[in-house]
Amino acid sequence: MKGVYIIADHMLSALGTDSAAHYERLCSGETGIRTYDKWEDLSGPFCLAAVPDDQLEAACTRYHIPASYTRFERFLLLSMQAVIQESGIDPSSPDTVTILSSTKGNIDLINPATAERFPNARINLSETAHTVQSHFGLLQPPVIVSNACISGVMALLMGARLIRSGQYRHAIVSGADVISDFILTGFESLKAVSPEPCRPYDADRQGISLGEGCGTVVLSADKHPGSIAILGGSISNDANHISGPSRTGSGLQQAVRQALSASGNPRIDYINAHGTATAYNDDMEAEAFHALGMQSIPLNSFKGYWGHTLGAAGMLETIAACWSMRRHKLISSAGYAKNGVSKPLNIITQTQDADIRTCLKTASGFGGCNGALVLQKEEDYAGHRAL
Amino acid sequence: MPVIAHYSLIKDDALVVDGRATYRHEDKEAGVGAFASALYKHMELSYLKFFKMDNLSKLGFLAAEALLKAVPDFADTPKDKTGLFLMNAHSSLDTDERYYETVANDENNFPSPALFVYTLPNIVIGEICIRHKITGEHAFLLSEQPDATLLCNYVRNVFDENAVDAAIAGWVEYYGDKRHALLMWVNRQPGQVGATEFTPATIQQLWTIHS
Predict the structure, then answer these.
(1) What DSSP letter does each residue of A70-136 carry, written as one string?
(2) Are residues A242 and B130, on separate chains, in Cβ contact within 8 Å?
């Protein structure tokens, strides 16, 4: 069985425009969630984790991404350009597959005011595939994964499988979503949005904070110093309800069990969970991790730092987990103070040094979907402690 | 090597199962709603959740009903080892537009949660899973045209990993009154009557003869 390694990464969110900036701010406990009096034509206040325009412009300038692209496309293109430069791989090689994950892509173009500058068809993610293909001169349009909030985890697993089967040597996997009035009104209509920055697993949690951003990695069949292996993963469905998780977390349990079994059942040192801060999601996760006997493993959610970034969530969170593993740090779960889930979990309340060899990443989403990935750094990793 | 053991197809006014037309709607120009309701009645289904689904979900749901009725061993297939891999070109855009009308309506601005929950393409997977208690691997992929190579390669990867024993794979598209669903039942039992190897060429052939 071939190994699959994460050899380069890039993060863009309210917290910064590169991975190192994200890691620094995670360690210092900064959040990117701010209160906005209004969003476009909608009157707030809203707690959102938006990418600041000036920072986006500066990053686009650095990577030569013109303003003729939409906001969503610029997220993808600059983040992909960053990992292509870092890894030195050739995106147009027949050995390289490109996979994009997003829930809604250019959905902000559904607003006629935003759409003016772009042709109608641009709203389709299948069209984004062509935009990205021509920007980078790819042989094939990217594969597009659109599977609610597990899209990022699913795209990573798909990339890992396509490499493991020998079809490709490299995969560029990128996930992005932007905040729009479409998404904001939708989550508001479901009464799922928190009036304060979200507080995953906390007793006073009141719902999600919406975020936006992009996370991109290069997966490779070749191990590099400092790379993290994707040992295995699994996707499951609750078969219970389209917009609420199962009470028992049976679907998440199934995904975790199968992911562990596909990975050779390693000991898990750390869990980066989904933790949206809705009442139902966080309780479901607590039930599942208890049923799996994983309740005492240190666990966090990153959503208190950059909100729920939907199709980017699995990407950004997996990358942050990789940084935690490489830097030997358990990062505190922002917004958490007092246990508020049906069965207590070992939530990380203080950022601390720890040797993390193996990490479980999970995600769940609308449509009853769950995803789990097992990440591992190499035995001899101590040699890279200075990195 | 997995095989295509059965397939169902909904195109315009017709339902085809394993190559035989089993239903043809009398009104060729009927909208998707009228067509879906008529097909639901014709199949003598009794599943109230059907009526709250969006058009994409109704289409996928009906194609799955027709397909699984043709699979004699479906009841014996472990549901956690049954996969569901779908693609289309327009995601949930039909419902996205309907939802956004409830947002952009200045006089009556009540964004509809009932529509919003259908503004993701993988909800049709969720609906089929709920109906048939399928809990296995799945994915919703978007592609301008049916991508037989990608679908075949990925589904075979999942079979090779032993993550599934059987899967529903195919295309479910609804936008601008164009409806097209092709679902294949893929499993590992060669030698079945009518079974075809699951390859990009055979998938493409099914797509071509029915489009």
Answers:
(1) -HHHHHHHHHHHHHHHHH---TTSTTEEEEEE-SSTTGGGGSHHHHTTS-GGGGSHHHHHHHHHHHH
(2) yes
Residue A172: name the closest of A130, A211, A125, A133 by CA.
A133
- Please tell me the distance in Å from A352's CA to the nearest CA on chain B: 36
Listed by number, the residues of chain B in 178-207 with a beta carbon closer than 8 Å to a beta carbon of chain A are: none
Whether the CB of B172 is below 8 Å from some CB of chain A: the reply is no
CATH of residue B79: 3.40.47.10
Q: What percent of chain A has pLDDT over 90?
A: 93
Q: Give the Cα separation of B107 and A56 in Å (integer).
A: 35
Residue A374 has pLDDT above 60, yes or no: yes
**Are residues A240 and B130, on separate chains, in Cβ contact within 8 Å?**
yes
Q: Say which of A145, A148, A188 has its CB closest to residue B141.
A: A145
User: CA–CA separation, A76 vs A159, rounded Å?
Assistant: 17
**Where along chain A do the CATH 3.40.47.10 domains lie?**
5-220, 228-377
Confidence grade of residue A105 (pLDDT, cut at 50, 70, 90): very high
Considering only the beta carbons, identify the residue of B113, B135, B161 that sits closest to A236: B135
Tell me, what amino acid is at A84? I
Peptide bond into A45 cis (omega under 30): yes
Homologous superfamily (CATH) for A5-220? Thiolase/Chalcone synthase (3.40.47.10)
Residues of B in contact with A234 (CB under 8 A): 137, 163
For A192-234, the pLDDT digits (tens) are 999 999 999 999 999 999 999 999 999 999 999 889 999 999 9
Is the predicted pLDDT of residue A152 greater than 50, yes or no? Answer: yes
C-alpha distances in Å from residue A372, one per residue of A314, B83, B149: 10, 16, 26
Q: Is the pLDDT of residue B55 over 90?
A: yes
pLDDT tens by residue, B64-80: 999 999 999 999 999 99
Task: Decide if pLDDT at A24 tops 80.
Answer: yes
Nearest-neighbour CA in chain A from B211: distance (Å)? 20
**Could you give the number of structural domains in chain B?**
1
3-state DSSP: chain A helix, strand, coil percent, rounded to 5? 35, 25, 40
Q: For residue B40, give its domain range.
A: 3-209
Chain B's closest residue to A238, CA to CA, is: B135
Across the interface, whether the CB atoms of B141 and A146 are under 8 A apart is answered yes
Q: Considering the domain A228-377, what is its CATH architecture? A: 3-Layer(aba) Sandwich (3.40)
B-chain residues near A126 (CB < 8 A): 89-91, 142-144
Reported as a pLDDT band with limits 50, 70 and 90, residue B107 is confident
Q: Which residues of A touch B117 (CB under 8 A)?
A: 190, 242-243, 366
Task: Judge: B153–A165 Cβ closer than 8 Å, yes or no.
Answer: yes
